[in-house]
Amino acid sequence: xxxxxxxxxxxxxxxxxxxxxxxxxxxxxxxxxxxxxxxxxxxxxxxxxxxxxxxxxxxxxxxxxxxxxxxxxxxxxxxxxxxxxxxxxxxxxxxxxxxxxxxxxxxxxxxxxxxxxxxxxxxxxxxxxxxxxxxxxxxx
Length: 140
Ligand code: FE
Known about the structure:
6-stranded antiparallel sheet; 2 helices; 140 residues; single chain; 9 strands; binds fe (iii) ion; 3-stranded antiparallel sheet; mainly beta; 29% strand
């Protein structure tokens, strides 16, 4: 179901916006309260902006007060991978798309019930698809 996607750096650079490239391929972070989805409450499914994999549901989205879209769980744990991130003088857990490797954000153990997890995700790594269906065509 989730065949891995391997594209060259040049391919990603041409397909993504500069901000997407910086965050998703260079593990950057968008500024808090500036992304498209930090305050979004619409129902729907958040897809990976790199490959269209369904990553997070609006049903698991909550207001963390951080200025980034926050979720207490992914739709399917297999679709997101994690690795230890020792940058910025702290040990954090980096979160990425299992399929295309796009950096998504970080996960912290201070989320709400039922998981206690906070997936702190950059808006620019996501694309919200309405609850109607999973048609991801026609995007910009
Ligand atoms: Fe992806």
